[in-house]
Amino acid sequence: MLRFWETAFTDLNPKKSKSGQRLYSKEDLEVVKQIKQLLYNEKLTIDGARKRLGERINNLEAMGDENSRQVERLKQIIQHAVAQLQDLRNTM
């Protein structure tokens, strides 16, 4: 079943050892769990599960992008505060 899912879902792409054995990462196992949930519990077709999985991954990526922007904004605020504190220290 996993080999079929690898062909049906491009997000499931385990690495292979030199001997050709599949090596599943934690991320791969999470994708497998999501695929199983979509197919067996939510009763979606392969196409429906592929679309839903793609939506979930896109949402996670968007959240990651938003988090990155927030982190950058916080870095700027901290850098500005440090610069102000240094200026204050230099004037004393």
What does this structure look like?
The chain is 75% helix and 4% strand. The protein is built from 3 helices and 2 strands, in the order αββαα. A two-stranded antiparallel ribbon has the order 1-2. A hairpin with a 5-residue loop joins β1 and β2. It is elongated. The protein starts with a helix and ends with a helix.
Describe the structure using short key phrases.
mainly alpha; 75% helix; two-stranded antiparallel sheet; elongated
Structural class: mainly alpha
Mean pLDDT: 89
Low-confidence regions: none
How many whole angstroms does the radius of gyration measure? 22 Å
Assembly level: single chain
Order of helices and strands: HEEHH
Q: Bin the helical content.
A: over 70%
What does the overall shape look like?
A: elongated
Major sheet attributes: 2 strands, antiparallel
Distance between the termini: 71 Å
Strand order of the largest sheet: 1-2
Number of strands: 2
Q: List the total number of helices.
A: 3
Which helices and strands, and how do they pair?
Blueprint: H1 2-8, E1 15-16, E2 22-23, H2 26-41, H3 46-91
Antiparallel strand pairs: 1-2
Summarize the entry for a quick read.
It contains 3 helices and 2 strands. By secondary structure, it is mainly alpha-helical. The longest helix is centred in the last third of the chain and has 46 residues, at 46-91.
